[in-house]
């Protein structure tokens, strides 16, 4: 429980996997967290800047 209290109200980046599962006659989607890490705002900002440069309409 202490781990959840430690990351309460903090921004995390989750890498998830989704899988379709059949249980009886019903289909459902199961989600699994593969990795969770704190956000690195500097690298995320750089990625966004590169994506914006790809949409440069001045060229």
From TrEMBL:
Q: Which Pfam families match?
A: Rep_fac-A_C
> Which InterPro entries does the protein's record reference?
NA-bd_OB-fold, Rep_factor-A_C
SUPFAM superfamilies named among the record's database cross-references = Nucleic acid-binding proteins
The chain's coiled-coil residues are: none
The segment(s) forming the Replication factor A C-terminal domain are 2-48
Protein name, as recorded = Replication factor A C-terminal domain-containing protein
Its lineage reads: Eukaryota, Fungi, Dikarya, Ascomycota, Pezizomycotina
